[in-house]
Amino acid sequence: MRVLLLAATIGGGHMRAATALKEYILQQDPSSVVKIYDTIQYVSPLLNKAVTGSYEYMAKKTPKLFGGFYKSSDKNTPINKTVEVATSGLRKRLLPLLEEFQPDIVVTTHSFATEMITALKTKEGFQVPIVSVVTDFAVHKTYINEGVDAYILSSSEMVNQMIMRGQPKEMLYPYGIPIKHEFLEKHDIEEAYQEEGLNPSLPTVLLMAGSFGVTDVLKIYHRVVKSEADFQIVLITGKNEKLYETFEKYLSKIDINNTMYEISRQYPNARQQSAKSSSLHHSRQIKPSKPTKLLYFTDEVEKYMQMSSLILTKPGGLTVTEAIATGLPMAIFKPIPGQEEQNADYLCRNGMAVRLKNDKSCTEIITDLLTHPEKLQAMREAIALKNNGNSAAKIYTLMERLIEQYRTAYPRPSAAASVSGETSLTGIKSLKEKSVSAKVPKSSKSAVKPSKDKTAAQKAAKKQALKEKALKEKANKEKERKAKALKEKADKEKERKENALKKKAKTKEKSDKSIKAKSLKTKETKEKKEKPIPTSQKSLKRDFHSDGFH
């Protein structure tokens, strides 16, 4: 099996999902050839730098702006159209990779990669199955593309969301996001506590702090340690050097006896530094604290998750899936508007997580959960209902089935035909092959035609596949036509009602003006009649009578 995994480094989850799937495939079939590519970096390093830089900046500095962009790109807007044109336009830069690697199947874990590879399939004749892995818990328009053969969804709730967006149910597989097999294996917790020097009689709160800013983590930590509950903390900074150094100094100022350090290879002198820091600040007033184990980086996150009673984290798709796999209740802090906000909604709606705010309610929620084990147990039970199990195994089985279907429907040409330049194994012709093919005389072309020894079953399967594709395209066109007709009808009805309301308002306004004018005229006439005669006029009338003028 030759598998091409197209991912992206925009956020850490897309590459992790691809890596987990690669590891499982090679475990099942060591003879398989599996390659992972950072798709945007491959087609344009400059674009990749701009996109990842913009994402990181907006997510941290202007999250509301990022949320607005995310929502806009989920609709038929100029922004969405621009993104589609840009990604589709870069598709041809993937051709050398496809022609060289000749994959049996392509799996994408990022929407940009999906848009590029499906554009190649629909516009360049790339006949290979495509599987799109959606790495969040809500659907987004950019993941939906013509040419995808199967969508791997994070939850069963997403099936209805996809159907509402016009996707057939038979293409939807709520298998969950693939994660490393270590998260599915049970660790010896008692042994792990001994190895890590943690107290097995205390609940453990895991703080995954790598994606937070320094200030945010300090605020969270301050709120958490004020809790009246007894517990210990494992704080993982995830290769965030500034955060690690800040916390190392901060914890040494609080109480060195309450702090445990896990020193990584990147910090060989950290233990001496912490001891020195302790002696310098020994006379300072001790602040509220909890026993804390500080980790710079670890590749054993699954172990710490299984040891913990609660995790404080941002709701990234992969971290959430890993927590669900280990049955770990979640406390969500400061989700980025967009996919993280939607992930948080899903978790809280299903009783798997609670939301934390940077106020006294944060301390109250932590205290409430850790002093009421039945509430944590209810969360664990809710998580168990949503646990998809070994997603990678299910995806692998699906991949095998799709590859077999395509091999039957689109038999690859003989070696002689491929050498002659008629077509590559995937059905793509390079520019060089096209130019050479154009110069080949008709007599030569006849020599490279596919052999006529195809079985009747293969021909029938291909015919059936083409028929099904034609029916599907016809159904989609009919669906689009009906949708367009309904929209036009609705728009016309809306316009008719608006015009009727405007006409009614205009008539009323005209009537009101007429009534007002008539009323004013009547009032003026009445006032004129009732107006008293001035004294000067009365005197003049008497003079006329006294002089005999009658």
Topology:
Blueprint: E1 2-7, H1 13-28, E2 33-38, H2 39-43, H3 45-61, H4 63-72, H5 78-89, H6 95-101, E3 105-108, H7 111-124, E4 130-133, E5 150-152, H8 157-164, E6 172-173, H9 189-196, E7 204-208, H10 214-225, E8 232-236, H11 241-254, E9 259-262, H12 270-280, E10 292-295, H13 301-307, E11 310-313, H14 317-325, E12 330-333, H15 339-349, E13 353-356, H16 360-370, H17 373-386, H18 391-409, H19 415-419, H20 431-439, H21 442-447, H22 456-530, H23 535-546
Parallel strand pairs: 1-2, 1-3, 3-4, 4-5, 5-6, 7-8, 7-11, 8-10, 9-10, 11-12, 12-13
Helix pairs in contact: 1-18, 3-4, 5-7, 10-16, 11-12
Question: Describe it for me?
Answer:
There is one protein chain. With 550 residues, the protein is an alpha/beta fold. The protein has helices at residues 13-28, 39-43, 45-61, 63-72, 78-89, 95-101, 111-124, 157-164, 189-196, 214-225, 241-254, 270-280, 301-307, 317-325, 339-349, 360-370, 373-386, 391-409, 415-419, 431-439, 442-447, 456-530, 535-546; strands at 2-7, 33-38, 105-108, 130-133, 150-152, 172-173, 204-208, 232-236, 259-262, 292-295, 310-313, 330-333, 353-356. Strand 11 (310-313), helix 14 and strand 12 (330-333) form a beta-alpha-beta unit. 32% of the residues are buried.
